[in-house]
Amino acid sequence: SIVVYYNPNCQGDQNETGIYYSQSKMCANFIYDLNGTKGPNTVGKDIGVITALYASDPIVVAPVPIVQGAVNATLTEALAACKNIDSESRIPNKEETASIFYNRVLYGLADFGASIWSGTRVPNTTGKGWLIGIFDGIYWTQNISYPSNVQCVKR
Q1: Where are the beta strands (DSSP E) in 34-150?
Q2: What is the pTM of this model?
Q3: What are the tens digits of pLDDT across the range 6-34?
Q4: In this structure, how many other beta carbons lie within 10 angstroms of the beta carbon of residue 28?
Q5: 61: which strand partners?
Q6: Burial class of residue 82 (count of CB atoms within 10 Å of its CB; 0-12, 13-18, 19+)
Q7: How many helices (H) and strands (E) does the chain have?
Q8: Angstrom distance (rounded) from CA 42 to CA 49
């Protein structure tokens, strides 16, 4: 089984350095169930997500968030925070955090704090990273020393 959302008006990556909505960058989102009604019907096992972003030079991601309690850390502490949860985990990049936002209800993250860190640094800046609002999908830049939520993903 597969559910497809297609956005015919998706935009390319503009190397943004300020606030913007991630929704305009999503071209397609696929939610699939490999074995239909047969079990276990669990995200990360037989249910998954594939998200295609950017109209030009597309990037396709398929993040698998790790179920965890809330972790609040600076971006510089986030890698260690993920390693403490699971040695096979890491911080999601900017495109993976967008996919997590689009599929937050499926992942059970609808109430996961106000924002999450992306491991992607802001271009042409020093000491800034991207945060995405988990309620609204807005990206904004923040100093890497700012504490915020960390949602780790499997490698």
Answers
A1: 47-53, 59-61, 71-73, 89-90, 115-121, 128-133, 138-143, 148-150
A2: 0.92
A3: 999 999 998 888 899 999 999 999 999 99
A4: 16
A5: 51
A6: buried
A7: 3, 12
A8: 12
